[in-house]
Amino acid sequence: MKYMMFVASSLTPDTESDESDIDLWVDPLDASGKRVMGEVLAPVSDSTVVRVRGGKVLATRGPFVETSEVVVGFDILEVEDLDEAIEIASRHPMARNGQIELRAFQPWDE
């Protein structure tokens, strides 16, 4: 099963994870093929929200919604089941400093 793993952080986190912590999480998962890919995202202040209203495209720079937590990165996991995805996500440094959201990929025909 494939899972999208959203990595969220507070806009003002209490602690910052050490970059080497991320490497300790990423390297074995990449080597095992459990992590298909992952990236860090640009700051929410650089985001663009796109909506279509009344047939017009509205593109708004910057965050659209007031929130205290934002998605700062993602990973795509290829695992046996949700239990394995949870176990992998629980080892991510941001599980301690932010939160991780897991969502299974759903086939188009369902």
From TrEMBL:
PANTHER family linked: BLL7171 PROTEIN, BLL7171 PROTEIN-RELATED
Protein name in the entry: YciI family protein
YCII-related domain: residues covered: 25-108
Organism, scientific name: Microbacterium pumilum
The organism's place on the tree of life at top rank: Bacteria
The family this protein is said to belong to: Belongs to the YciI family.
Lineage of origin: Bacteria, Bacillati, Actinomycetota, Actinomycetes, Micrococcales
InterPro entries registered for this protein in UniProt: Dimeric_a/b-barrel (IPR011008), YCII (IPR005545)
